[in-house]
TrEMBL record:
Species lineage: Bacteria, Pseudomonadati, Pseudomonadota, Gammaproteobacteria, Oceanospirillales
GO molecular function: metal ion binding; phosphoglycolate phosphatase activity
Gene3D superfamilies reported in the protein's UniProt record: HAD superfamily/HAD-like, Putative phosphatase, domain 2
Protein name as annotated: Phosphoglycolate phosphatase
GO BP annotations listed: carbohydrate metabolic process; DNA repair; glycolate biosynthetic process
InterPro entries membership: HAD-like_hydrolase_sf, HAD-like_sf, HAD-SF_hydro_IA, HAD_sf, PGP-like_dom2, PGPase_prok
Amino acid sequence: MPDLLIPSYENGLPQLALFDLDGTLIDSAPDLADAVDFMLLESGFSAAGEALVREWVGNGAPMLIKRALAHALELEEPQQVAEAQFQSAASIFYDRYDEYCCVRTRIYPGAEELLQHWRDQGVAMGIVTNKPARFTQPILQALKLEQYFAISLSGDSLPVKKPDPTPLLHACEALQAQPGSTLMIGDSINDVLAARHANMKIACVTYGYNHGEDIRDANPDWVMDSLIELK
């Protein structure tokens, strides 16, 4: 456990730990890249490849799709993608990812060990992800991770998603935890912003999806190369 975590929480443990999913607990980029490339090829474009898709993940499926289309169309901003083209491509992406969302997706080393340890220590845990619920639950079930979480909030569970703090605060209210006793664990600037606006501490992993930027530049409270460092 990082030395700084001990004075931040009673008994050195948060009352509630909220985890981002993609890029924090699981490496989903291979399956996301498969769906993105299938979508692009079916739409008449060239495949983007996993390396690029890793840089596009982190703001939910609609933004991932728009970033891929903007790249293919050589547009400066994802928002410039025409709505009709987005809807057509999104249908292809969702159908593909529905079928192949957990083929090569894997749990990061150390993640389940931390989950088991904190469960044994009585720490309540939840998922707060921007991923649509239609994908979140099947992946959690396939990887046998749902057993650890008292609540799971996806990108479409509430009217807003990260970086808005509402999902984090909703989880706190549902599990009767104070934000000051809660720790958010993520991998991107969206996780940092959501935690800051919710007045809770934020720990970030270095290996996740942060659009190619060093997560240290977002100034989280703690940065680690493996979740096992929180044990």
